[in-house]
Amino acid sequence: MEEFSRERIRVTERLIRPYVRKTPVLELPASDFDLGSARLFFKLEYVQHAGSFKARGAFANLLSREVPEAGVAAASGGNHGVAVAFAAHKLGLRARIFVPTVASPAKIARIRACGAELVVTGDLYADALEACQQWIRESGALSVHAYDQVETLLGQGSVGLELEEQVPELDALLVAVGGGGLIGGVAAWFAERVQQGKIRIIGVEPNAAPTLTYALRAGHPVDSPAGGIAADSLAPKKVGELMFPIAQRSLQEVVLVSDEEIVAAQQALWDSLRIVTEPGGAAAFAALLSGRYKCQPGERIGVVLCGANTEAVKFSR
Description:
The protein is of the alpha/beta class. The protein contains 12 helices and 10 strands. It has a 6-stranded mixed beta sheet with strand order 1-2-10-7-8-9, sandwiched between helices. Strand 3 (72-75), helix 3 (79-91) and strand 4 (95-99) form a beta-alpha-beta unit. The termini are far apart.
């Protein structure tokens, strides 16, 4: 069986189904955002357990791999750490999570609330990953990689499985890219339809963290800048080795958006729909709203809103 086949994603989806939410899809006309006659289908993955799609990959790892007495360890910009901490808590496992100083206070608070041991170290995700790998060597804990792990991609691929069941005839699908676990898993699910010309998969990256753009240009994953407003979710040092061949085969294009365009997308989602996302969660929509991805008349466009671990809104009377 192919490593990232639809059947393997189906098997993984059945495994994690008791532990994750089937997130809804919101359909509305693109004219609501002055984007013409297209139809938009927002996959509301930010309402997933732990506040992002990452719960899928976390449960896929913890349920399908043997966890030693030392427990699990993960490095994260924030969302993966929240998800692994959440999954470990639900399954009664020990977890140590490593995050960089750019991790948002909201994500750090959620990791602690799940009872995981938290280590804040280094300025960037790559620094946290190095510290995590050192701990794994010393302790024997199970490594749960945020994106470059087979089980992680299979778990994230369940987003594609669900979306196809909910909206069978999408013309295009926009997905944010960090390390590439989400878009790799989703593109693996849709690979056959991509080859048949039935759907286009579009990656969206911040200008300040063009990891996949650099990799596609070089022909292999390479180091890239890792900054910007979405640095705690979309700014690894480079994309994963496992997702890269999937991206080469199945992505139509990768577009870049600015920090200002991401903020504008966050604001538009709040103003029009009262949806709150973190910057990384709004990046895919930013490509549409900014015109970096041009809507075609009548096009059916899926947009994954992938995370909402933020303190951007303060509730009061």
